[in-house]
Inverse folding.
């Protein structure tokens, strides 16, 4: 079977839907208009669907031929950014923008639904369409799973697409193993004892202690982690003190901890704690640390990623690359923890049209030539895994 580009009417519809959603961005768990659009489109196509996780939608396409149950996931939420892309279909909502491409993800999954629904007679297995809210936070994947998104019918493999400004339109990226990092937040407070700035010996200054902690935390990446593995320890904010001649009694810091390897991730909290407690003792202050665990790393199933990558190289005209993993995070991780999963990257770069900015930039643009490529890739995943042409075990 050759993987073919979608017909013109599907392309045009996908572009139209993408631009409509782009004009009306909605933040996590506020995706009412987007949800209604998805429901209208699935209803018009005759695809059975149900609401889930407040503003999410699950659709099911049941093929007439025996095969596997494959899920395709698209996220739907926007970001609190004021758009400066200059696109004629820019956001009509000040302070909100589809700057991560989730508008394109939703439109492409609807395009794939259109094609898959039309080929039900020859379709092997079933396809579950996961329209997910709140990827940018607080996270829609976990509530969808908790409310049975993967259970009825029972999903055996899952894929997602994410637009990627590093790759040109016409290229997809499939990398086996870890592709996104875990993202955990930490809140660190240094408790000293205040006093007059002229008499530091009568106080316990929180500021030099905090500075020493920031410096010492750098050794987690540079001295404690295998140089061939990845970790990020970032102190993102720091605040404390009152004025020039007062010793600060307290400094508050926040930061992010990221890793690909679950073992490294799981050891980070105790490493941070050991270092800040040690520095606190040395500086005669106290430290309190709180870690809020966020998304786990996305780990692409190795056989599924290898087999799908090989399949697309032989059956499609697309460039199939193996891009480097990133330290960004994705709550697709929860789906991929449940069943074999692949995060597929979709090239959207085009220097001629200014589609060169990374996601979360107010200037973010997409080369829309990528949209039919994404539809084609989703359809190819569903049909090849559903029929067993691409094995996942
Ligand atoms: Zn994003
Ligand atoms: Zn995103």
């Amino acid at each position: 079977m050759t993987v073919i580009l979608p017909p013109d009417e599907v392309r045009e519809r996908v572009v139209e839907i993408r631009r409509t959603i782009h004009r009306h961005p909605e933040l996590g768990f506020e995706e009412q208009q987007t949800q209604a659009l998805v429901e209208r489109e699935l209803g018009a196509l005759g695809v059975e669907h149900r609401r889930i996780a407040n503003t999410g939608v699950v659709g099911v396409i049941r093929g007439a031929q025996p095969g596997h149950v494959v899920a395709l996931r698209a996220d739907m939420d926007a970001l609190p950014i004021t758009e400066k892309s200059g696109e004629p279909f820019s956001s009509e909502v000040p302070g909100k923008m589809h700057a991560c491409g989730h508008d394109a993800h939703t439109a492409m999954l609807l395009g794939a639904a259109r094609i898959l629904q039309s080929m039900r007679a020859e379709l092997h297995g079933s396809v579950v369409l996961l329209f997910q809210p709140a990827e940018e936070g607080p996270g829609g994947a976990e509530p969808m799973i908790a409310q049975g998104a993967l259970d009825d019918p029972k999903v055996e493999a899952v894929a997602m697409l994410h637009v990627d400004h590093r790759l040109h339109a016409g290229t997809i990226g499939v990398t086996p193993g870890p592709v996104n990092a875990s993202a955990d937040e930490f809140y660190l407070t240094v408790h000293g004892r205040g006093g007059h700035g002229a008499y530091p010996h009568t106080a316990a200054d929180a500021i030099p202690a905090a500075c020493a902690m920031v410096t010492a935390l750098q050794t987690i990446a540079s001295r404690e982690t295998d140089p061939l593995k990845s970790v990020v320890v970032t102190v993102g904010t720091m605040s404390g003190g009152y004025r020039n001649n007062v010793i600060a009694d307290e400094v508050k810091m926040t930061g992010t901890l990221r890793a690909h390897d679950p073992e490294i991730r799981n050891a980070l909290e105790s490493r941070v704690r050991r270092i800040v407690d040690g520095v606190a003792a040395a500086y005669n202050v106290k430290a309190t640390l709180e870690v809020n665990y966020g998304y786990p790393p996305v780990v692409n199933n190795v056989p599924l990623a290898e087999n799908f990558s090989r399949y697309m190289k032989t059956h499609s005209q697309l460039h199939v690359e193996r891009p480097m993993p990133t330290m960004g995070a994705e709550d697709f991780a929860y789906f991929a923890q449940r069943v074999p999963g692949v995060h597929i990257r979709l090239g959207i770069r085009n220097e001629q049209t200014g589609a060169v900015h990374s996601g979360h930039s107010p200037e973010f643009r997409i080369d829309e030539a990528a949209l039919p490529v994404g539809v084609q890739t989703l359809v190819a995943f569903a049909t090849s895994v559903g029929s067993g042409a691409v094995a996942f075990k």
